[in-house]
Amino acid sequence: MGRSESAVPSPPSFKSWLLVTGIVAALPLLSFSLLAGRALLKQQHETANAQLEHRAEVAAREVSREVRMMYSALETLALSDAALRGDYEALYAHSRRVAESFPRIGSISAVDLTGERRFTTLAPFGAKLPASNLGKFDKLVLESGENFVSPLVSGSVSGRQVVALYVPVKSQSKTSMALRLTLWSESVEELIHEQQWPITWTAAVIDQNMSIIARSRTPKRYVGQAASDEIQEAIRSKAKGVFDSVTKDGMAVTASVLPIAGTQWHVAVGAPTESLDAQVLRALNSVLWIGLVCGLLAVVGALYQANVWRRHARQLLGENER
Predict the structure, then answer these.
(1) Local structure of residue 211 (DSSP, 8 states)
(2) What is the pLDDT of residues 275-321, one digit of tens each?
(3) CATH code assigned at 83
(4) Which of 20, 87, 148, 290 lies in disulfide reach of 82, CB 3.0 to 4.6 Å?
(5) Which domain holds residue 143?
C-alpha cells in the first residue's frame, strides 16, 4: 500500500490511430511524387535541350537553303552565253536583272584572270572601281576553279559588311573568270529573325574566321566582332549536343552550335540557363505540389473519418445506457 502504483499509460485514442494510418498511407504517395519529380526533372532537361538543338538545326538549314538559292542564280549566270563569250557588258546587264530580282543580293561582280574587277552592279558599267577587300578570295577562286563562300568583310564600294559567294566561269574546263555575289550582313540577319526566336534567346551566324556575321539580339553592336571563347572552342572541337556558354553581353546560356551546309559557317543558338532551369522547376513543382496536396487530403480525410466514427460511437453508447 505504501508503494505508489506504477502509472499505466492509456492506449492511443482511435483518432490518433486513424491519423497515423492516414500519414502512413500518404507516405508512399509522397515518395512516388519525389521519384516522379526526379524523373520529370531529367525528362524536362532533355526536352529543353532537344528543343534548343532543333531550333539550331532549323536555323542552319534555312541559311543553307538561302545560300544554295544564291548559288543557283550565280551558276545560271556562269553558264550564260555572255559569260562564256567573255562579253562583260552583256553579262553586266544580265547580272543587274538578277540582282534586282533578289532583294537580299548586295551586288554581283565579275573578276577576270588578272584579278581585275570588270564590273559591279553597284556602279555603272565601265566606272572606275576601288581596290576590292575580297581580292585574296578572287585569286583563290581563279586558281582553284572551285566555288567558295567568304568570311565577313567590308565592301569597298558600299562600305557595308558583306559576305561573298563565288562561282568560277569555265570554258572547255578552264577557268576564264570568277563571278562574285555579295550578301549584306543585314540580309543574313533577316534570315535569323525569320525564325522568331524567344526574346531572351540569342542566335548568331559565325564565319570561318570566328567573326559574327549576323545576330538576333543587338546586331549593330556585335556584328564583325569575334564570337565568344566557348562558341569558338565548340566550333573547333566540333562539339555535339548542348554546352554551357556565355554570350557577348555576359548572359549565361545553354548553347548549341551546328555547321551550315555548303559553307564554312556555323549557327550558334543560346537560351538563358535561368529560363531553362525555371521551366524545368515549374514542372517539378507541379508534381511535388500534387503529391503534397494528396498527402494532406489523406491526413484530413483520416481526421474527418475519426470524428465521424467517434460521434457514432458516442450515440451507440448513449442508447445502450438508456
Answers:
(1) B
(2) 655 555 555 556 556 656 665 666 565 556 556 656 665 666 555 55
(3) 3.30.450.20
(4) 87
(5) 67-185
Task: State the Cα–Cα distance between residues 179 and 75, nearest whole angstrom.
Answer: 9
- Helix (H, G, I), strand (E, B), or coil: what is residue 144? helix
Q: What is the pLDDT of residues 105-159, one digit of tens each?
A: 999 999 999 999 999 999 999 999 998 999 999 999 999 999 999 999 998 888 8
Q: Is residue 178 part of a domain?
A: yes
Q: Note whether 79 and 168 are within 8 A (CB).
A: no
In a domain, 16, yes or no: no
Number of domains present in the structure of the chain: 1
Place of cell 532537344: 50
Which residue's entry shows cell 556602279?
A: 123
The answer to whether residue 1 is domain-embedded is: no
* DSSP collapsed to 3 states, 61-106: HHHHHHHHHHHHHHHHHHCCHHHHHCCHHHHHHHHHHHHHHCCCEE
**Residue 173 domain-assigned (yes or no):** yes
Residue 88 corresponds to which cell in the numbers above? 562583260
